[in-house]
Amino acid sequence: MKILLALVLMWQGAAAPPAKVVASLRRIFGAGVSGAPIVVNTDTVFRVTRADTVLGFAVVRAVKGKDQPITFLVATDTSDRLRDVDILVYREPYGGEVAYEAWRRQFRGKSAADSLEPGRTIRSISGATISVNAVTLGVRRAMRELTTWHRTGLIK
């Protein structure tokens, strides 16, 4: 599979195991997807396709939790709407609830123009305040960049 080969080639020093990224893309976009890495500035964006149809784009990011990085994937569709957020590696002893489906679900369908504010439009989680704030900020930044790159033609 193209995605796996590309991820294995770029794995050195990466923050998430390639198999987790592949599994995440399959979960979000469905079986039979493939992808091609596109380098934009210093980021690698995955152009996700099935057959000849572009399904969307994804980027892997990391934010600092209380003490450790939280590595996650943000995937958008071709209309620049968020498909899903997937926590790939959570290293903190507390706050892992940000990986739960019920919490991540609230991001789906959002765009870069939507307000993503913990405690307002994004539910807080007791005992996971730092993780909620960090992941929400990271998703907001990733959405803004993916949307800009797509609209300016850097990714297509």
Largest sheet: number of strands, sense, barrel closure = 5 strands, antiparallel
Relative helix content: 25-40%
Structural shape: globular
How many helices in DSSP terms? 4
Task: Give the structural class.
Answer: alpha+beta
Q: Give the total of beta strands.
A: 5
Number of structurally distinct domains: 1
How far is the N terminus from the C terminus? 20 Å
SSE string:
HHEEEEEHH
Stretches where pLDDT is under 50 for at least 5 consecutive residues are 4-14
Radius of gyration: 15 Å
> What percentage of amino acids are in beta strands?
25-35%
Strand order of the largest sheet: 1-2-3-4-5
Overall mean pLDDT score? 89
Quick gist of this model?
With 156 residues, the protein is an alpha+beta fold.
Offer a few descriptive terms.
156 residues, alpha+beta, 5 strands, globular
Written description of the protein model:
- The chain is α+β, with helices and mostly antiparallel strands and 156 residues long.
- The protein has one domain (2-151).
- Helix content is 31%, strand content 29%.
- It is built from 4 helices and 5 strands.
- A hairpin with a 2-residue loop joins β2 (43-50) and β3 (53-64).
- α1 runs antiparallel to α2 (18-29).
- It is globular and about 45 Å long.
- The chain starts with a helix and ends in a 5-residue tail after the last helix.
